[in-house]
Amino acid sequence: MRTQIAAANWKMNLTLSEAIKLTEEICQQPLALTPHQRVLLAVPFPYLLPVKNILGNQKQILVTAQNVAATPNGAFTGEVSAEMLKSLQVDYALIGHSERREYHHEDSAILAAKVDRCLANNVTPVFCCGEPLPVREAGSQNDYVETQLKDSLFHLPAEMINGFIIAYEPIWAIGTGKTASSKQAEDMHAHIRNVFSKHYGQALADSIPILYGGSVKASNAAELFSQPNVDGGLVGGASLHCAEFTSIIQQLRP
Ligand code: PGA
Question: Which residues are annotated as catalytic?
Answer without folding.
Answer: 97, 169
